[in-house]
Amino acid sequence: MGESKMVHSPLVTYASMLSLLTFCPPIVILLWYTMVHADGSISQTLSYLRQHGLQGFLNIWPMPTAIAWKIIVCYAAFEAALQLFLPGKRVEGPISPAGNRPIYKANGVAAYSVTLITYLSLWWFGIFNPSVVYDHLGEIFSALIFGSFVFCIFLYIKGHVAPSSTDSGSCGNLIIDFYWGMELYPRIGKNFDIKVFTNCRFGMMSWGVLPLTYCIKQYEENGRVADSMLVNTILMLVYVTKFFWWEDGYWNTMDIAHDRAGFYICWGCLVWVPSVYTSPGMYLVNHPVNLGVQLAIYILVAGILCIYINYDCDRQRQEFRRTNGKCLVWGKAPSKIQASYTTATGETKTSLLLTSGWWGLSRHFHYVPEILAAFFWTVPALFNHFLPYFYVVFLTILLFDRAKRDDDRCRSKYGKYWKLYCEKVPYRIVPGIY
């Protein structure tokens, strides 16, 4: 059985699935509506809902339109084609619980470059105006909410009928199977990896495309792009560029190597990432803030520094693993713990746990610059409204929860070695505090 099956009790799964299904779609629509039509004011949206009740909410909810479906299908097909046909180096993923080693084609940077250049060229040469995407954003999110649900049903059926590897199987409970997923590495054919598509090429790529859309919309409305919008967009693009630069490292993380492809992760990447993660820019379209050159540069430098530290944390650990601990960390030999563990098949293996550099500060120190980076690309919106900070708050909760899940997983995997590791690196995320 996959580890997600053991970590989460049926009760937790039912509760989280019900809350995801019940609260997330309305949050996506309400977030969009408030940013675009209610001046970014939560109280304005709430008073509207108080007056008009459920019917008012149904009136807000845009139905998916033909143009929304057309935009989504063209975008998805374009990204799928890039994923399949662009050249890239062969990369091996980590060995799975069932002993499989997934093979990937690392062409993320190429796909990202082609996507952004194509998108800007379509606008520049007057072939397609990205403002259309902004104007139909509600319908697009609505279509994604329903379409992604159907896609997850397809994943569930595929897991039963035609699993791609032995890292699959049912736990005997339909809801848990649907929610946490049937397969760890579902593929279509031999080469098209579904999780790389949903998480990276659809979800993360949209995080690069939508901020550009918001910039272009603001430019077309006002004849100029405010410095606040520029700072927000540049920081987001730097972050997403960092992601694709490091994409083959992402394939070793919890999302890909441990969480199965089910509703929880795929619906989140297909719907939540495009809508929630880009929301500060969505707000700035109609609320251009003039920061002034000095403040804009301060925020930009602070944000880029955080993104760099976040990248350097991951790079340090990757380098440490690649060289089997025979590398320099901050100019000296790394301190480490050699931990042994037993696999599902009963083999004993060893792992090295890094306890110096960024990883000596706390066990998940890389989450600190990640949360701060999100704060810095949101802060250009200033503090008139709370809603632009929704993503920062959500990210903080998500990462604190992920750190706990990761700690629990490592504790059961490494046992006494993990205890030793925690004594050496006592803080979970924030050094000296938590």
From TrEMBL:
It holds the Pfam family ERG4_ERG24. GO terms for biological process: brassinosteroid biosynthetic process; cholesterol biosynthetic process. One of its GO terms (molecular function) is 7-dehydrocholesterol reductase activity. Gene3D superfamilies: 1.20.120.1630. The chain crosses the membrane at residues 12-33, 67-88, 109-128, 140-157, 261-279, 291-311, 371-400. Keywords: Cholesterol biosynthesis, Cholesterol metabolism, Endoplasmic reticulum, Lipid biosynthesis, Lipid metabolism, Membrane, NADP, Oxidoreductase, Steroid biosynthesis, Steroid metabolism, Sterol biosynthesis, Sterol metabolism, Transmembrane, Transmembrane helix. It is a multi-pass membrane protein. The keyword NADP applies. InterPro entries: ERG24_DHCR-like (IPR001171), Sterol_reductase_CS (IPR018083). One of its GO terms (cellular component) is endoplasmic reticulum membrane. It is found in: Endoplasmic reticulum membrane. The keyword S-adenosyl-L-methionine does not apply. Its EC number is 1.3.1.21. Belongs to the ERG4/ERG24 family. This is 7-dehydrocholesterol reductase. It comes from Actinidia chinensis var. chinensis.
